[in-house]
């Protein structure tokens, strides 16, 4: 069974940090762009950050640029999201995802090209 399992969410105060992890199982994701998306209550799911299969390109939403860093370890089949200087508006369920196509750039991965979703992890930033 192919799965993406997120961990690392939780409750943090404004200005704090969290590190999300997403571990793949059932197949390798080393040749797929991967990324993080989030969905706040009453809002559409949006792209947060994506990374190419070879880590050569990364994409960040304007709202998180300079605060969040995406990385991956293909040997561990895992992608990470380091979140610093968190704000209340970062509160959302964060989803890990993998591109349905192989060997694509970070920019290729978006909601329409996701082939695999994780179950999501809640991040709550208190003011």
Walk me through the structure:
The chain has no helices and eleven strands. The chain is mainly beta. The strands form two sheets. Strands 2, 4, 5, 6, 9, 10 and 11 form a seven-stranded mixed sheet that branches. A four-stranded antiparallel sheet has the order 1-3-8-7, with no helix packed on it. It is globular. The termini are far apart.
Compute the CA-based radius of gyration.
13 Å
Q: Give the number of helices.
A: 0
Q: Tell the overall outline.
A: globular
Query: Portion of residues in helices?
Result: under 10%
Number of strands: 11
Core attributes:
single chain, 127 residues, seven-stranded mixed β-sheet, four-stranded antiparallel β-sheet
Short description:
The chain has no helices and eleven strands.
List the helices and strands and how they pair.
Layout: E1 3-7, E2 10-13, E3 18-25, E4 32-39, E5 46-51, E6 58-60, E7 68-73, E8 78-83, E9 92-102, E10 114-117, E11 121-126
Parallel strand pairs: 2-11
Antiparallel strand pairs: 1-3, 3-8, 4-5, 4-9, 5-6, 7-8, 9-10, 9-11
